[in-house]
Amino acid sequence: MARGSLKSQFYDVLNAKRNDRPYDSRHKAKLEKVDKEYIFSEKTLKNYKQSCGKFAEWARATHPGKITRTMESAEQFVPEYLNYMIDKGYSAYTVAATAAAIGKAYGKSYTEYGVEMPTRSAQNVKRGRSHSTCDKRFSEEKNKDLRDLCDSTGLRRNCVEHLKGSDLYFNEQRGAYYVHVSGTYAKGGREREVLVFNKDKETEARVVEMIKSAGDKKVFDHVHTAANIHRSRSNYAKALYEEFARPLDEIPKKDRYECRGANKGKVFDRRAVSAITRVLGHSPAKNFYTVNHYLLA
User: Fold this and answer.
1) Alpha-carbon distance 281 to 192, whole Å?
2) Cα–Cα distance between 100 and 206 in angstroms, integer?
3) Successive 10-residue mean pLDDT values, the chain, 297 residues
4) Residues 233-281: tens digit of each pLDDT
5) Distance CA 7, CA 227 (A)
6) How many degrees, rounded to 5, is the angle at CA 296 between CA 159 and CA 227?
7) Distance CA 59, CA 84 (A)
8) How far is the C-alpha of 54 from the C-alpha of 241, rounded, in Å?
9) Bridge-based pairing state of the strands 256-258 and 267-269
10) Which are the contacts of 153, defined by CB distance < 8 A and separation ≥ 6?
11) Distance separating alpha carbons of residues 42 and 102, to the nearest angstrom
12) How many beta carbons lie within 10 A of that of residue 122, not counting itself?
């Protein structure tokens, strides 16, 4: 039976890790300690296939012939490819994401390939932090609904693209509106409940009505490709922090999150940061990301 192209072999393996998973919930898979064997979201699958596809193209072009005809024979060139990316100046985040994708396909940790990965630093993150050429293609005035919704929910692009009116509900106990994020479209397959919040209560109320009015349909037929979603997530995180963080002199020592490196001296309320981390859809261990990529962005 023909194996198909090297790229299609990667796609088949990755598709199986998504489609054949024993649980829909990554949390349940973690309890059984099998979460690292599978893929739990369509977005992750798409990104992994893209990264592995690029490796397949590079391997076939750089080492043509039978030696890169199968995944098994091409694996020996993974370290060379990762070092190639590093030498070409790819960002530490891109190299790490590529290594994770290839490792997922082979069922290994990228550390097994013996490549010294470049250090990932918050100061080197550029996307979404400042104005770029993409902003020139995005009209804040024409896309006010999109901007206000993103600023009031902190949803990732994939979630915004699939958001329906039926995902909104009112929590009687907390007296607030929430959006239920399905694991199908969430990063890492993590379902979560997202508070609809904006310091401007008129904007918040308008966003709630906007989502409600969509009913069983999507809120947006199209999400502008130049929309700076990360900046909106940062705006949302900062607004939530200002609302829920305790004054610094009231934070017990054990709850003080003290920054290091370039941001040494800055202190955050660890309890508030942890809550925002969960709302943003990150694992509890990612308070570092919340502080450096959103609150300090």
Assistant:
1) 7
2) 40
3) 82 94 77 83 91 96 92 95 92 90 92 80 51 60 92 94 96 95 76 94 97 96 88 95 94 93 91 94 85 90
4) 999 999 999 999 999 999 999 999 999 888 889 999 999 999 999 999 8
5) 31
6) 35
7) 11
8) 39
9) antiparallel
10) 160, 179, 194, 196, 207, 236
11) 17
12) 17
Tell me the three-class secondary structure of the chain, residue by residue.
CCCCCHHHHHHHHHHHHHHCCCCCCHHHHHHCCCHHHCCCCHHHHHHHHHHHHHHHHHHHHHCCCHHHCCHHHHHHHHHHHHHHHHHCCCCHHHHHHHHHHHHHHHCCCHHHHCCCCCCCCHHHCCCCCCCCHHHHHCCCCCCHHHHHHHHHHCCCHHHHHHCEHHHEEEECCCCEEEEEECCCCCHHHCCEEEECCCCCHHHHHHHHHHHHHCCCCECCCCCCCCCCHHHHHHHHHHHHHHHHCCCHHHCCHHHEEECCHHHCCCEEEHHHHHHHHHHHCCCCCCHHHHHHHHHCC
Report yes or no on whether pTM surpasses 0.85.
Answer: no
- In angstroms, the CA 72 to CA 2 distance is 15
Rounded CA-CA distance 239/243 in Å is 6
| Cα dihedral 45, 47, 49, 50 in deg (nearest 10) | 160
Query: Could you read off the pLDDT of 97-131 as tens digits, one per residue?
Result: 999 999 999 999 878 888 888 765 555 555 455 45
Strand partners, 178: 169, 195
For residue 43 the two structure tokens come to: 């977005």
